[in-house]
Structure formats: structure tokens, C-alpha cells
Amino acid sequence: MKLLSPLLLLAAAVNASILTLQSPKFTIATKDGQQSRSEPISLAQKPSPLHLSQTDILKLTFQIVDKSSGNGVQPRQVFLRFYDEESGEEGIQPLRVASTGKVKFDLDMSKPPLSIPPTSTAPLEVSLFIGGSTTSTSYSPLKMDLFSLHIPASHPVPPHPDEASFHLLPEIEHTFRPDPKLPPTFISAVFAGAVIAAPWIVLLGLWFSLPSLPLPSLASPSILPFTLSIGAFEFLLYKYWVELKLGDVLFYGAILGGVTVFTGRTALRAVEQRRVGK
Amino acid sequence: MAAPSSSSSSSPVLSLWKAYHQNTSDRLKFIDSFLIFLMISGIIQFVYCVLVTNFPFNAFLAGFSSTVGQFVLTASLRSQVNPENKGVFKDVSPERAFSDFVLGSIVLHFFVFNFLG
């Protein structure tokens, strides 16, 4: 017995109860009661598309029953879905169910409910969704396509302000500053010559106007190495400008710096001797 | 009363010039010519930048700052070497001033070549 009860529960769950509709019917009538169309809704074959005008009222009635027992059921969730296949707009209308399972719904086109989606000339597919178990039994959910409905077109939906950001955005075109232009070669050559030549002319002119160039005898053996090391530094910097990398320059510079310290000390000591001795 | 500065031989500018020539030693005039050389070089580069183009800008900055920096170093060498300033620079011998000048010039040249591109 103990092993049998879980199996019975499993069997009950597998055979969950099934809902069905009893006597579904729709009626299209005008306000003054004139009925233009009244048909039962066949669950096997969809009726021909319905057409509603501004003054029509669509009345929908059916009863939700348990398929096996035939008793009325009052599920908690009963919805009518209006779906426009072309634009993808849909509207959901909850329906009120009596305790006996009877449902009555009126769609008055002169006062359309808020659940109707914006429409164009395309038809709305109307389907019924039933779900939710009652307290005692659980029913498998039911979805049923009822009919196609043509209603008057609404105003077009104003586009959402953020609509554009959900589509492909226009390609970004960058505008760059135009490349700087070089001046004409002649002018640039004239100024290059001026910068290089003119100051040197002035300098040499001034130097040779002095009665005696106050240079210490640069070629003397105590001073020449110093001059050469300074010249070597300038040569190293020229090489740096042309081809060397920073690490190499610093390495060679350190070596040359050490050498220059020694040559400098001898040279300047000699100059000082000469100055003091004088 | 100040004498008119156009024709009189005792005009201030002219007497300044004469005093400079008489009282400055040849060594200092040697350094002064170098200062004038640097000034002219800097002025011509600046005039080019203003008149023609400042492209490439880094080259202008490197060249101009090399003249300005060298001018500063040479001016400080001149003031330290001038025998009339010996009272101000008691601890700095002219040789020490010259070695400072050489070191400063080498560092300046290094930075200028870095920026020259």
C-alpha cells in the first residue's frame, strides 16, 4: 500500500484534467438590437472572418467545463488575445468567469475597451487562453484560436521617441583637419639659409674685429683632449638624432662623461695655473 | 637739461657705446659676440615662425629654445667670469664656471635633439 500511493499520485498527475468549452457562440448586433450575424463557434473549423463597423457590438458567450465530468469550472485566468500578425501589435482582455464557468463578453465598437491594440486594415486573430488551477484540481492550460476579426482602423501609433535607437543608426562620418601644408620650397630655403648663415657671419665678423682672440692655446696637450671629448659629445648627440636609441645614448654618454671629467680636470687645471701664474 | 639725442656726440647711447668699448676686456667681448649670435639666430627663427608657418611646431620649439637656453647659460658664464664680479662669486673660479657652462650646454643640447624629431 505504501508503494502504491505515490504511484497513484503520479498517475493522477499524468492524467491532469482537461478543460473544454461548452456551447461557444458569438453574435454581431447593432445598438438597436438588429442582429447581423449569430453563429456558434466551431472548435474544429474556424468561422469565416468577422467584420465589425463603428456601431456594432460583438457578444461572446461560452461555458468552461471539465471534459470528463461536464461540470462547470471557474479557472482563475481567462484571457482573450487580439493579435495583429502584420504589425505584431497585440492586446490582452481578461474575462470575468462566473462560478458556474459561464463567460459573457461584449465588445462595443463605439466604446472600445483599452485592451484593443492599434489596428490597420489587417485582421486581428482572436484567441482564448485559459489557465490556472482551481483549489481542488489542476487543469492543463487551454489555448484556442477562435476567429479572425476585422475592426475599423485606428490612428497610426506615434513612434516612440527612442525608436530610432533600435534600428541601424546612420554611419558616423568623421571630418579630420586637413594636413598642414609645407611652405613653398624657395621661401623655406631662403629662411633656412638666413638662420644658418646670417648669425655666423655676424659672429665671425665680430670675433675677427677684436684685436686678439682670447682663446687659450687649444692645441696644447693638456687642453686638446678636453676639446675633443666635448666634440665627441656633440657627435654622439648628432648620432642620437639620426639613428641611435635612448638607451644606447645614455650608455655611451655615461662612458664619455667619465672620460670628459678626467680630461676636463687636467685642462682646466692647466688654464688655472696659467691664469694664476700670470 | 638732457642733450638732444640726435646729433650731439655726448648723446647717451653713443657714450654708452664708447664706454662699453673702452672698459670691456677682449674676453668679455668674445663672449658678447656669441650672445649676439644667439640672439640673431633666435630672432630669425621666431620671425619665420610668425611670418611663414609654424609647422612642424616641435622643430620651432626645439630651435628657439636652444638659442634661448644657450643665451641664458652664456650670460651666466659671462657674469661669473667677469673679474669685476669677483666679490659676488667668491667660491666660483672661472674654471669652475666654465665647466658648469659645458655641462649645462651638453644637457641642453641633449634635450633639444630629443625634441627636434
From TrEMBL, chain A:
Major localisation: endoplasmic reticulum
Pfam families: Ribophorin_II_3rd, Ribophorin_II_C
All copies of domain Ribophorin II C-terminal, residue ranges: 176-275
Transmembrane segments: 186-208, 215-237, 249-268
GO cellular component: oligosaccharyltransferase complex
The keyword Transferase is assigned to this record: no
Keywords: Endoplasmic reticulum, Membrane, Signal, Transmembrane, Transmembrane helix
Membrane topology qualifier: Multi-pass membrane protein
A biological process term (GO) from this entry: protein N-linked glycosylation
Record localization: Endoplasmic reticulum membrane
InterPro entries: Ribophorin_II_3rd, Ribophorin_II_C, Swp1
Pathway given in the UniProt record: Protein modification; protein glycosylation
Ribophorin II third domain segment(s): 26-138
Function: Subunit of the oligosaccharyl transferase (OST) complex that catalyzes the initial transfer of a defined glycan (Glc(3)Man(9)GlcNAc(2) in eukaryotes) from the lipid carrier dolichol-pyrophosphate to an asparagine residue within an Asn-X-Ser/Thr consensus motif in nascent polypeptide chains, the first step in protein N-glycosylation. N-glycosylation occurs cotranslationally and the complex associates with the Sec61 complex at the channel-forming translocon complex that mediates protein translocation across the endoplasmic reticulum (ER). All subunits are required for a maximal enzyme activity.
PANTHER family named among the record's database cross-references: DOLICHYL-DIPHOSPHOOLIGOSACCHARIDE--PROTEIN GLYCOSYLTRANSFERASE SUBUNIT 2, RIBOPHORIN II
Record-stated family: Belongs to the SWP1 family.
Protein name: Ribophorin II
The species this protein was found in: Tetrapyrgos nigripes
Automatic annotation (TrEMBL), chain B:
Protein's pathway: Protein modification; protein glycosylation
Biological processes annotated in GO: protein N-linked glycosylation
Topological type in the membrane: Multi-pass membrane protein
Cited InterPro entries: DAD/Ost2 (IPR003038)
A GO CC term assigned to this protein in UniProt: oligosaccharyltransferase complex
Pfam families: DAD (PF02109)
Localisation per UniProt entry: Endoplasmic reticulum membrane
Record keywords, A-Z: Endoplasmic reticulum, Membrane, Transmembrane, Transmembrane helix
Origin superkingdom: Eukaryota
Record-annotated membrane-spanning stretches: 34-53, 59-77, 97-116
Family under the similarity heading: Belongs to the DAD/OST2 family.
Known function: Subunit of the oligosaccharyl transferase (OST) complex that catalyzes the initial transfer of a defined glycan (Glc(3)Man(9)GlcNAc(2) in eukaryotes) from the lipid carrier dolichol-pyrophosphate to an asparagine residue within an Asn-X-Ser/Thr consensus motif in nascent polypeptide chains, the first step in protein N-glycosylation. N-glycosylation occurs cotranslationally and the complex associates with the Sec61 complex at the channel-forming translocon complex that mediates protein translocation across the endoplasmic reticulum (ER). All subunits are required for a maximal enzyme activity.
Assembly with partners or alone: Component of the oligosaccharyltransferase (OST) complex.
Protein name as it appears in the record: Dolichyl-diphosphooligosaccharide--protein glycosyltransferase subunit OST2
